[in-house]
Amino acid sequence: MTLFAVFASVVFGAMAKDTTQERLLYGLKVFAEFMVIGLVLGWILYFIP
Amino acid sequence: MVKTERMQAEEAEPAPGFAWLTGAAAWFFPGLGHILQGRLGRAALMGGAVWVCFFVGMAMGGHLFDLASEGSSALLQVPPMIANLGSGALYLVSWLLDYGFKDDPAQAARATYEYGNTFLLIAGLLNYLTMLDAFDIAAGRKP
Fold first, then answer.
1. Which residues between 57 and 116 in chain B have a beta carbon less than 8 angstroms from any beta carbon of chain A?
2. A13: closest CA among B46, B9, B70?
3. A29, CA 20 to 30 Å: which among A13, B52, B104, B109?
4. What mean pLDDT value characterizes chain B?
């Protein structure tokens, strides 16, 4: 999941925004969102039989 | 430039032939679209992500989709096949070598099989985004 989040956020970050700093911040934000949502969904599904 | 002005500018200037060529090259060989425009950093990041994603998917024992199934199940193969097809030459070479397309129960039993499938699908979808980015840059719609 982490590896997937890295690849996806690299491409999303490189595509979006105008400056390098904005791209870096956006990439980090997307990475964090992938990780947090993945972990939250994982725990929710863990409790669903 | 606001969105409406940008849309008007796009309508006035159709994409040049080079942009279409760049888009096709970007699809066929992940990263090539940006390389042709001298954007090597972008090519390494975006194209590299696609290549690594594809090979990680293959190493995990992922399965590539084609229309080999018969009947209605062939239709179900179309969406993942479109995603896989985004990998361009990587998909075509695998198809020519018949590597990764077989329905092997031993391969499907691997713990990483589904992860591999997902990585292969994502590699193709990310390359579609990379291709569109290269096209937009070549068409002058993006700095």
1. none
2. B46
3. B52
4. 87
**Residue B4 to residues B8, B9, B73, B113: CA-CA distances in angstroms?**
6, 9, 44, 46
State the DSSP H helix or E strand holding residue B25, giving kind and residue range, or none if neither.
helix B17-28
Residue carrying structure tokens 């129960």: B105
- Which domain does B82 fall in, by range? 16-138
Residue A15: predicted pLDDT: 87
Please report whether residue B7 resides in a domain. no
ipTM of the complex: 0.81
The amino acid at A45: L
**Taking an 8 Å Cβ-Cβ cutoff, which residues of chain A contact chain B?**
3-4, 7-8, 10-12, 14-15, 18
Specify the pLDDT at position B2.
53
CA B123 to chain CA mean position, Å:
6
- The predicted structure's pLDDT at residue B106: 83
- Contact in structure between B119 and B126 (CB atoms under 8 Å): no
Domain ranges within chain A, ordered by starting residue: 2-47
Closest partner residue to A8 (CB to CB) among B45, B52, B122 is B122
Cβ contact, residue pair B119, A14, below 8 Å: no
pLDDT tens digit sequence for A12-47: 998 888 888 999 999 999 999 999 999 999 999 999
Amino acid at B62: G
Work out the angle between the directed axes of helices B48-59 and A2-15 (0-180°, nearest 10).
160
